[in-house]
């Protein structure tokens, strides 16, 4: 106990100064002084509070707790009084910190500015990673991005300084890698305005992707609401080896659970197989858990995490985590709502796609499946890196394969790109020779940014509409996501398999059994990839790219030019008028999958993320209209003419006509982008009626004053025609658990009535009445 007390005291001394003062090597000193802004007075890692809250809840529930429950319930605003029922009640939580990437931070900071608050209440950071387009190579693309996005970067930098937010400059790296290297730790609760925030679960934290309005709540010091998650347990046995990697675990899980199987649940990995996975490998698994709709994913604290903390200059955190380890692992005998078992010793390399991340295939079978399905066999481009797979270990394993090929005189047959996850990873793989090997084999090292993974790719080797195949180590592969070409067949897999397929130039290649041919005609087989989990020397932090907020920022000016096409101050949405919604038009009845990419496309549209009116010109332009199987072509029911979805929406709004969207299953899956909720609200939408929602999008719609509703009978979707009018009644007695009623009026005058369910609680109903959550916040000030 005395040792524990000394450890906690030492950590408090380090935390209280606002500067990281751990005993780390000289190579880390620069990063140590600025990176971890959660080491500010009043924001220390409080394991004692976590332990106290967990003890209160365990006594109340009188049962063993899962790890997810410990961390989530350990952050309850009122652990003694909070009603807890997995999958039913809403929890009021106090997250430790907020992280925002630059595309979503624009709207989040604009909303925070509108709140009128002088400074953020919890440690927060902005990360510039989304606005850098891959075109030529890292240095050139970064410089071009700085010039093109100067106005936005200046806005974010000054807003961060004024309101007490840390700012990671363009070139620093991808938000999730920066969080893992600097901010995540076992037991943390972090929310981030990006759907792949769960990456931090690889370091034992509960890290959840949210919309900007949720981030504003937390930054304002308001308890954050989350429906009490169910818990899916994934028990791992055996050991990873050979060609099988951590990526294959989540590719397999995605195939089992599908893109909506994790909705409303935290995926908790446990079992003896966990210890065979590196910390960054666990992060890979948690990162892509977003593709199954999970609230987040998490691993229990172990020695792999301790080693990673020590290597990234956070050994003191590891020491305290050791003292509180019982709160950072699941209780013996805890129960999961669903259990999946995976034997890592039997798991084979996988590749998922095309067009959806849950279409899983063993690599050994993909060639035959592609032939049968008519998918292009030739791999045009292989892309490794991204927030999912850009660790030192990932790059080392890919480089081990590239080195084998180079030793035989062979280079990649496909184009090959490499995206480092952070400036630290870039500098370290350059120092240790991995970057040279990967470029020598034919690779182009891109900027430390999201790049092609989110559609920031100026691709020129194929024409739009040309059928082709790419293979990536990314996490998401929806239609047209990477290159804006709907005919591109994108497959996701591990960096090792991407490298092997880029060397072979075809999907019809199994590296475990097939041979490559060297330029001299020699046949050879690749040995399984190898790579160090962490560098033998310390990480090279590279260039200093972090701006710490000043102690006093009130004098900092934040300018938004009224004539800007990139930035626009927000106007409050109108309040509910107290009446039922009558005779609304159907803007579009969506057919099939409708992700946030379909609702609010990324790529070239990212530049308008800070200007609500301009970005609203991409509303639902990727969604398929059931009436004609076309995209961005809907009938204006007032004129009888067909037009683009945003154009018709604007016409309805200008003529005082409210409208709704009708959709299918898992509507709004994918990215956390709240623009997919802001845009329909801005253009006059009132309700989104679907068979089911993805979690983040449903919450985002509520935050902006819209009604996300689901058919009580999913077959009612088929009864609605594009030229119908919809009235929604029951709003005057709007209450939790009480369905609303829709009256469908067909063009012949006949009517049908159907029941619509919702998940609003009392607080969220107040958002609707006020016009938005932000409006409600102002009412309460």
Automatic annotation (TrEMBL):
GO molecular function: 4 iron, 4 sulfur cluster binding; aconitate hydratase activity; metal ion binding
PROSITE patterns reported in the protein's UniProt record: ACONITASE_1, ACONITASE_2
One Pfam family here: Aconitase
UniProt-listed CDD domains: AcnA_Mitochon_Swivel (cd01578), AcnA_Mitochondrial (cd01584)
One GO BP: tricarboxylic acid cycle
Cofactor binding note of this UniProt entry: Binds 1 [4Fe-4S] cluster per subunit.
Subcellular location, record wording: Mitochondrion
InterPro entries in the cross-refs: Acnase/IPM_dHydase_lsu_aba_1/3, Acoase/IPM_deHydtase_lsu_aba, Aconitase/3IPM_dehydase_swvl, Aconitase/IPM_isomerase, Aconitase_4Fe-4S_BS, Aconitase_4Fe-4S_dom, Aconitase_dom2, Aconitase_mito-like
Chain spans, region Disordered: 518-557
Cofactor needs: [4Fe-4S] cluster
Pathway: Carbohydrate metabolism; tricarboxylic acid cycle; isocitrate from oxaloacetate: step 2/2
EC number: 4.2.1.3
Domain Aconitase A/isopropylmalate dehydratase small subunit swivel: start-end pairs: 584-713
Name of the protein: Aconitate hydratase, mitochondrial
Lineage: Eukaryota, Metazoa, Chordata, Craniata, Vertebrata
Record gene name: ACO2
